[in-house]
Amino acid sequence: MADEQLIRLARAHRVGTEYIDWRGRRAAVPPDTIVAVLGALGVDASTPAAVRDALAGLEERRRTRLLPPVVVYRKPGAAGPPGDDELPVPGDGVELTVTLDGGETLVLLGRRRLPDDTPYGWHRLRARRGSHEQAHEEEAALLVAPNRLEDVPRAWGLMTQLYSVRSRASWGMGDLRDLADLAAWGARELGAGFVLVNPMHATEPAAPINPSPYSPMSRRFAAPIYLRIEEIPEYAALPDADRARVESLSAPVRRSVRTLDEIDRDRIWTLKRTALELLHRRPRGTGRQRAFDRFKEREGEALTAFATWCALAEEHGPDWRRWPAELRNPQSPAVAAARERLAPRVDFHLWLQWQVDEQLAAAQDAARRAGMPIGVVHDLAVGVAQGSADSWIHRHLFAEGMSVGAPPDEFNQRGQDWGQPPWHPGRLAEAEYGPYRAMLAAALRHGGGLRLDHAMQVSRLWWVPEGGSPADGTYVGYDRDAMLSCLVWEAARAGAVVIGEDLGTVEPDVRDDLASRGVLGTSLLWFERDAEGRPRRPADWRETSLATVGTHDMPPITGYLHGDHVELRDRLDLLTRPAAEERADHRRQLADWLRLLHEEGLLAAHPDKIVQALAAGSTDHDQEITDALHAFLARTPARLLGVALTDLVGERRTQNQPGTSHEYPNWRVPLADARGEPVLLEDLPAGRIRGSLTAVRDR
Questions:
Q1: For residues 427 and 433, what is the distance between their CA atoms, to the nearest angstrom?
Q2: Residue 338 to residue 308: CA distance in whole angstroms
Q3: Are strands 497-500 and 26-28 parallel, antiparallel or unpaired?
Q4: How high is the pLDDT of residue 78?
Q5: How crowded is residue 554: how many other Cβ atoms within 10 Å of its Cβ?
Q6: So what's the pLDDT on residue 429?
Q7: DSSP symbols for 327-386
Q8: What pLDDT does 94 receive?
Q9: Cβ contact 633:154 at 8 Å
Q10: Is the Cβ–Cβ distance between 142 and 124 less than 8 Å?
Q11: Could you say which of 24, 175, 262, 405 would form a disulfide bridge with 668 (CB–CB 3.0 to 4.6 Å)?
């Protein structure tokens, strides 16, 4: 047990000293973990004397500092919570001056309330105490944010892992043209209002490529592996010989879409990159060159830094921590010299990002033109891989020696270590959340919505000291109001909806804060239970949420019905209790849900008979239960309903088994139907799917 002063110091830095686990029990954090996490934050807590000195330093800063790095003012509005009456800064004896983004200056003259007509956005706030030689001045960023996002329109949509949705024209995996076609098909044939996809974040620039979309190299930039080569304008002007070369590159991976072979990103990207290099060398007309120049100007230094990292990663590998020492600092003279030497490769990667940007825009445009009120909803991963582009470009903003993960929970009983460095809360605030804001703006630029994978990323993250067990980590808090206000402002500017995946162990007030700001939560059917552990009746579900049956970290409906997840985790040694107990518990929980579906009049057969049939391996009831679960979702008050494409076609295999890497083909499973046959985009059975979605479409 940590001593009292260490606990005081930890809490002052938002480092958890205890937490409530998934079973509702209080768990103490080991003192060694607390000391290690404080050390990663730049706070020496290695000895009692160091702890006393750190506490004294904190007290001195509190006494003398006038402003935090970022001041948030939630502008009162007509809807939602009342907003801020005053700026949350000291007022007694302090003169406050605001310089608006447009240059106008407001002197508040002893007041802390902003005028009602103060525009939203980022401004500068100056505080002054005293006069003449004794005056003390400080300046901070001021974010005037909307109090609340607009209400989300009721809609339902498709959820899919895009790489798994292949077409006859795609190069072995789903791409951005497939996304455009899927969105248009979903809107016109099914009446879908949105399509939620996996993160499009940037991957390694050369093989081998990590298949997980949730462990990217950058969250600010996108993955060119999702490009459709033939949609690039320069392709139309290729000479016959070059066009034949591109067609020969695509042929083998196009043939693979008719199989259930695992998606081979290394092979696909190697072939695509060769074709893209050929297109990049083609001359561009004046209009196209001007568009490219405008794109580079808009994205600025961050894009150049990312392209430089890509060029260096092609030479030295994607983990900058293993590069020659002189290249580990992006501002070093050695990096500047390398950028000049590698100028053609840097330009290639700049050009790739331009192409992805154009095709992302085309996908959202196709969705909206087809009638989707929301369109594409992008997914924002929790973080980036260790040694990634983002952690190189913004090295000082990440906490060294730490990895983000999750404590043990019902489905991951050993905890999780995601291998991702966390933002340093204090340094990110000192940087006025610049990289975070730019990342949000990029994610929202070509979409109608954004899903936050692990919504707690705006409030706290589970830090695991490198080399330690996930169970021995602790939560580290962020300035939730600042991060949430950045998110709300960027979403309001884009006119987008925001969904937070608030599953697992969540702080009690996080869901309330998200809802009060107009951010939807996530209601996952298998996890929706009341205080007594019984399945929650539809009328008792949250309105401010995206309601779904499952998630990409669980098997599709049919796989869950047959307990595939239990067998898989048993085979991979991921269970912490006997498999027989897991199977019995799964059957009990499933029977509870089937009884509720029966009581709601959504399931004709008796639940006990269905459970017996499922235990015997029968698939006779799979479609009936799938339809009943979707009809159940339609009875909830949830603003958004998400229906997985895997469930609509009868897929049984899960896309990802948490806690594994090479033991299971995570993120490499192509879409298949109940018979185990590949399903291509052109072959989606619209008629049967419409029947399964009758209740969802008519709600």
A1: 9
A2: 8
A3: unpaired
A4: 52
A5: 22
A6: 97
A7: GSSTTSHHHHHHHHHTHHHHHHHHHHHHHHHHHHHHHHHHHHHTT-SSEEEEEE-S---T
A8: 85
A9: no
A10: yes
A11: 262
Alpha-carbon distance 689 to 674, whole Å? 13
Q: Is the peptide bond before 435 cis (omega within 30 degrees of 0)?
A: no
For strands 26-28 and 18-20, give the pairing.
antiparallel
* Predicted local distance difference test score (pLDDT) of residue 356: 98
Q: Which pLDDT belongs to residue 145? A: 96
3-class SS at 205?
coil
Q: How far is CA 355 from the centre of its chain?
A: 22
* pLDDT at residue 414 in the model: 74
Read off the pTM: 0.95
User: What is the Cβ-side half-sphere exposure of residue 211, based on CA atoms within 13 angstroms?
Assistant: 25
- Cβ 546 vs Cβ 503: under 8 Å: no
Q: Are 4 and 32 in contact (CB under 8 A)?
A: no
User: Quick count: other Cβ atoms within 10 Å of Cβ 676?
Assistant: 11
Per the DSSP assignment, residues forming a β-bridge with 545 are 521
What 3 state SS string does 217-229 have?
CEEEEECHHHCCH
pLDDT at residue 219, rounded to an integer: 98
> Which residues of the chain register pLDDT less than 70?
1-2, 77-83, 91, 132-133, 410-413
- Got the DSSP string for 120-168? SEEEEEEEEES-GGG-EEEEEEEEEEESSPPPPPPEEEEEE-GGG---T
In sequence order, the 6+-apart residues with CB closer than 8 A to the CB of 261 are 670
Backbone dihedral region of 221: left (phi > 0), alpha (psi from -120 to 50 degrees) or beta?
beta
- Amino acid found at 155: A
Place of tokens 């970290």: 553
Contact between residue 157 and residue 378 where contact means Cβ atoms under 8 Å apart: no
Rounded Cα–Cα distance for residues 294 and 305 (Å):
17
Q: Which of 266, 353, 273 is nearest to 305 (CA)?
A: 353
Which of 151, 169, 168 has the alpha carbon at shortest distance from 517?
151
- Do 347 and 282 contact (CB within 8 A), yes or no? no
Strand-pair partners of 439: none
H/E run at residue 640: strand 640-644
Contacting residues for 411 by C-beta, under 8 A, at least 6 apart: 553, 554, 565, 658
Which string of b and e fits 619-653 if b means at least 16 CB within 10 Å?
A: eebbbebbbbbbbbbbbbebbbbbbbbbbbbbbbb
Tokens representing 580 are 């027989």
Taking the C-alpha atoms of residue 500 and residue 483, their distance in angstroms, rounded to an integer, is 13
Q: Is 104 exposed, middle or buried (0-12, 13-18, 19+ CB in 10 A)?
A: exposed
DSSP element (H, E) containing 588: helix 579-599
